[in-house]
């Protein structure tokens, strides 16, 4: 906490000394126009461009004179993206044919030349102005183009203690974060976009202490009425029953998972976005319905002041994980406390933290394990596979990560023209972040020639190849790399995995995990496989009894006819039931069916399940229910 306070003092001191040059670190100051400019390579419609600039505290830039033309061109040339043309703030949306900049400067007062054949007002629908090579053209405002945002030095740009000019952000010492309550309502994707543009993110609850902070923020808004609820940064978009924060952690990993009574109920479609009641308890909310929301911000974000110490701690109150910020000082210059921390991290890297999964390779340059998946999938499939393996979809956030990902890819025998990264704008169009929440604008990446083009206004995922990136449609199928950071909890349990939900049963020699979320048989198979396990196979009466006990332990009040999916099937319609390991049930050692089963009561009853009493059942392959995974304790480890 002392480091945080020291940082704030340094920030205020710096802001006092260089106040007018300290707007946002993702903007560049141009003294010829006394303004900060930022080039947005990711294209959008004119309205999207205008909104993105506005949410960042700026406006859509216009080449109103020769000086501004030069500054805009310089800002574009300073990037690695090929740019054939950009949107300007000049438009005639308010009144057809009357073009003005956003600041109100008439087009007639600007020293600009039209491109050949322009303006043509094609289809009587071209109300926006594009700029390229010193010339302009009228274009349809629904086209997608890059753009430049600008912030004039004459505007109020005093940086506040939260590292932003926005005075509505309040610093809370107990959590080390800043918060802003938005009383205007927005849908969850819109709220995500607003927070991202402000250099923040939809609030993530990491502890009971932070919950109390958000409760107090709600109380400040007035009497209980519309201010008894707000949107926060969690979601469940994959219909797997697992709620995640927008930074890729499960709620349990993040440090807070206390739901309101009866929640999540998902009683209607689209209840896949997160909210919080005034009592601090969580709720599943409609993604397409607007509500008030809270943004959370690291005080150091948007500012380029670095210091030695810890960034925000994550995890619950009793098990917080400090994130260390490495400096360029030599080891001899560090104090004893810091030296001890370095040695502790080094020891962890040498012993325990190298012991994640045998199918992952440790890369000491990034303190993480990586795994290349040569079998391609869509972006959502890639993210889910990584998550099920206890990892995240890797992103080349800096040079070290770029090198590690390239090395992991080259280490395989598969030819790879390009891979998916964890960078996406699925939550809110145009706002690209990694799965962990790192904005694309803060990564030193170069675009491929002609990229980004947002083809068909439908490219929300980022692919990586040969050190460059491109925006692609998330439904394309590409290979990918999963990663597990060394700073995450990686203590290997007796079942040979970091997953604490696997329980060892001495009488069978196996480990088991009961999944209470409901999925189809095929999905259950995938989940177990990704966890280094398999859908449970019953090999004897003793194992059937133990699995029945597990069922009753996790579902003590379940209805007698409720079933749990296990690893057997009859997909060949030959009447012979087999385990997923290729044996008949008799050869595997257990074939005790419930009375009247298998009855094949309806089409698709070709997948296996178990009743609470341990007896077998034929179940529909396309219907959802809970399931059991089984794991060899030695699997995933190189003992």
From TrEMBL:
Gene transcribed to yield this protein: LOC112055469
Tagged with keyword Nucleotidyltransferase: no
Alphabetized UniProt keyword annotations: Disulfide bond, Receptor, Signal
SUPFAM superfamilies membership: C-type lectin-like
Protein's name in the database: C-type mannose receptor 2
Signal sequence, renumbered to the chain: 1-20
Organism listed in the record: Bicyclus anynana (Squinting bush brown butterfly)
Domain annotation C-type lectin: ranges: 45-150, 174-296, 378-483, 507-630
Lineage: Eukaryota, Metazoa, Ecdysozoa, Arthropoda, Hexapoda
